[in-house]
Amino acid sequence: MNRKHIAIPPWILLVAILLLGFSLRIWNLDARPLWWDEGLTLTFSRLPPRENARFAVRTAEPNPPVYRWAVGGLTSLTGTNVFTSRLVTVYSSIFTAAIFYALVKRGFGLRPALWAILLFVTAPIHIYYAQEAKGYAFTAAFVLLSVLAWDKLRKHIMDFQPSLRDRKTRQLWLVLAVSTSLAIGANYLAIFAYVTLVIISLIISILAVKRGARLHSLLIQWAVFLTSLAVGILLLAPFMIWTLTGTATGLSETSTGLPQYYPHHFAVIFLNAFGSGVRPIGLAGIILSLILLGLSTIGFYRTYRSGRKLAAWFTLAWIVIPLILGYIFHLFYPWFFPRFLLYAQVGLLALSGAGIASLATVVRSKDAIRRSSITWIVVILILMLSGYALATHYDA
After folding, report:
1. Distance (Å, rounded) from C-alpha 19 to C-alpha 387?
2. 207 to each of 64, 274, 348, how far by Cα in Å?
């Protein structure tokens, strides 16, 4: 008997997953009252640049204004209440999901991308910060937009083709500059993402030179690349300089009394939060984090062996380098938490998506149903554990 498989177009699956993610983020959005930091967001959101900077210095506020102005812009149109105050982060998180899908599809392929975005939209940590009027989801969205622009421009950085010859290329460099400004303008610690991007680009370029690339062309492309990043940062320079004393004071005050961790303890805290979310859920959280770590290991190995070496190493570096930079920062200012690296957490999900897509090939069986059943058992287990974590969040 012939079995006919009904193929669902990928775009339908993508839209369905994005709608699921939007529903999970909009659900109970206004169930909890605004807390202190969200109140600060609203206070700063309506202040013009000069008053915003002055108030930041007076209150020793370490956060930049871009996300808060986005909230002010939206609430000026919709009115201000708990629901509308958090909508910018909801939209930012869905925007992040779409960019994340595009990145994983470019680096790993269609099936890993679909599994990865399913993990993203159900990830407890991303839902938690999508339901808070703070700039972490907004920052992650524009950091990943920068990475997408970088990936499309990669041939110019690596292969040294003329960077400003066509209109599309110029637009991509502009996107890189603007997204850099928006990301760092929402959270200064997003600078770690761009340091990571520069380090990875430098390694790629060194390897290219060893393969015979021309140094002169390399330097031209690096000049354009660094100029784009610099323009993005310089757009924020007046505000950053004006509020420097307030930022430094705020970092010192918020770090007072916080513990410093050994490297292994720091890594465990971050990886556990990356997997199971912000609220501790005991053994279930540990199991969820370990499953994702195991899948990401399989995903890295299978991706590397399949010939997509750059995607595998880039994604691993995208997790590890920000963690190292964050730990160095933590040694000086203990005020550093997993929420500052939401953009790095997606690397774990990308590799896990690749791992799920590879499970059918890991199982040594000629029975296609048995191979696919292993995949679905793992996915259902992840969704059940994530659902348990989300239940504690919604009920809090």
Report:
1. 17
2. 37, 31, 25
For residue 273, how many other CB atoms are within 10 A of its CB? 22
Q: Are 134 and 41 a contacting pair, CB within 8 Å?
A: yes
Helix (H, G, I), strand (E, B) or coil at 262: coil
For 46-166, where are the alpha helices, taking DSSP H only? 49-58, 66-78, 82-85, 87-108, 110-121, 124-130, 136-158
- b/e 32-63 (16+ beta carbons within 10 angstroms → b): eebeeebebbbebbbbeeeebbebbbeebbbb
Average pLDDT, 10 consecutive residues per value, the chain (396 residues):
63 97 96 93 92 90 94 95 97 98 97 97 96 97 97 69 68 94 96 96 86 76 88 92 90 90 94 88 91 97 95 97 97 94 97 93 62 87 94 80
Q: Roughly how many angstroms between the first and final C-alpha of the chain, as a whole number? A: 52
Find the helix packing angle between 66-78 and 87-108, rounded to 10°.
120
C-alpha–C-alpha distance, residues 375 and 363, integer Å:
10
Q: Are 164 and 171 in contact (CB under 8 A)?
A: no
